[in-house]
Design a protein that fits this description.
By secondary structure, the protein is mainly β. The protein is about 10% helix and about 60% strand. It contains 1 helix and 4 strands; from the N terminus they run αββββ.
Length: about 90
């Protein structure tokens, strides 16, 4: 398993996307961070809307993102991420 830190980290699923797309607008909202195990790990969630162009077409996607982080000494490490469509409003 490789480690990335600081500004060099790009979640792997996004790397191919950002290389192929031109991001026109990216909005994140409803951020929430929950800490567990005496503050040694955390789950961060948010909703997003992203407008981008790819292959000559402009698209907008709405979804939610989640990161699972573990604290090692004084640094937080992202150990898992997940993205899915935005939940439907009931």
């Amino acid at each position: 398993m490789s480690r990335h830190s600081g500004d060099t980290f790009t979640p792997m699923p996004w790397r191919g996307f950002v290389e192929a797309a031109t991001i026109r607008e990216w909005e994140k909202r409803d951020h929430r961070v929950q800490r567990y195990t005496a503050g040694k790990c955390a789950v961060a969630t948010y909703l997003f809307s992203i407008t981008f162009s790819m292959g000559g077409q402009i698209q907008t996607m709405k979804g939610r993102g989640m990161f699972f982080l573990v604290k090692e000494e004084k640094r937080w490490l992202v150990v898992a991420d997940q993205f899915s469509p935005e939940p439907l409003q009931v």
